[in-house]
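Work package 3, deliverable 3.1, input record:
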Amino acid sequence: MASPYVEGETGLTDIEIADVSQHVGEEIRIKGWLYNRRSSGKVHFMLVRDGTGTIQAVVGKGEVSPEVFELADSLGQESSIVVSGVVRADARAPGGYELVLSSLEVVQSVSDYPISPKEHGVAFLMAHRHLWLRSRRQLAILKVRAELVRACRDFFDDRGFVLIDAPIFTPAAVEGTTTLFEVGYFNDTAFLTQSGQLYMEAACMALGKVYCFGPTFRAEKSKTRRHLTEFWMIEPEVAYCDLEGDMRLAEELVVYVVERILEKRREELDILERDTAPLERVRAPFPRISYDDAVKRLQEEGSEFTWGSDFGAPDETLLSNQYDQPFHVHHFPVGCKAFYMKRDEETSKHCRGFDTLAPEGYGEIIGGGQREDNLENLERRIAEHGLPREAFEWYLDLRRYGSVPHAGFGLGLERTLAWICNLPHLRETIPFPRLLDTVYP
RNA sequence: UCCUCGGUAGCUCAAUCGGCAGAGCGGGUGGCUGUUAACCACUAGGUUGCAGGUUCGAGUCCUGCCCGAGGAGCCA
């Protein structure tokens, strides 16, 4: 049986709005939704969107039946419609092309769509996130996000990395459980992953170069523009790699993805009114500053920051404003970083870890470093941090059987996207954000 | 958890010193043959977050609570 929506079975040429310029003069059909409607009495203008773009359908009285003319004027915003007609280039049309409507099929007539083309508050939009996604700005962000994901994958795939999926359920408390989401696991308890890194360390000893890309969960009581409770991280891990190699990999990745977005998603950046000049400046190698020098820099600027603590948001912003492209901060004090971070033998106070901070006040988008590969050192670290050794036996095995220097990092997808799109808040970077007090819709 | 600000029509907001609760958008009705978040006219639409208090009189002042936003802390 013929389907009314399968091309070739209806005798009509179905096109996507993004392709209208290739169909000027042809009679075609578009399946979409009514974005907005205007009229000047004898001519109605229906702004139709289909996800690939928007086009105005012109409905002239006398050119269609009185019933269709009436119908076109009665539809509410977001009514689902299938429109047919001839594509015409016209300077008066938004986008330069319009559809001279000959027939109109109403799949559903809608009234009282909640989101009008006027301004709305954040709380209202968040409560209607499922509908907010249809707006022009959100479409643009989601398309850049999809391109960013693809660019990350291509970067690693093209360099011989193997995609390894890390588990979402993880066993027993590694460190304090306060930042982990606890879930029932049959008659036991499991936790949602905070990072796939430890598993990537195992995988890189098998495959050399690996990465994982998936959601991570943090049960932190953070109520800021830079935190989500569920976010996506891409985490590469490389055997026979040190801090220097790790930082080079990180900057090559950032340069690659920024170039890709500039190449493929300029139109979306335009919609977002993103000034692309700061993105055009991104190139490797990134400026590097040691933690010690960063502390000096902060103190010169009048901050009361003391050696040994981790940077707070204002500190990151202050540093970030001194560079016009991303930069690495490296060699943090051992107290700032995790138990698995390799110590620098020369100073013993520092570890071979780094953060990459995005400019324009965005701060940390990457955190990583070289891992402790010596069994005795790692055992000592686990004890010093008061961690349950039995939970790490499998991890210690990696240092018993063919241990090598290795390093990796995690890139926060949403923070990177927020910077690339110049968004004020992380909540717009993910389709359905999970925040401290938001799990709906 | 702490600090700051806010909650008035479906949405965005206004309401002077405590004195008749309003506008724009959206909805409805009518008009307009090229609109660009169209425009014009008319119209419907209110438990001013909740509970209590002060007052002749409370959207406005006081107390408590709820909800939201921004920030801080927190953040292998």
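The domain at 17-108 of chain A is CATH 2.40.50.140 (OB fold (Dihydrolipoamide Acetyltransferase, E2P)).
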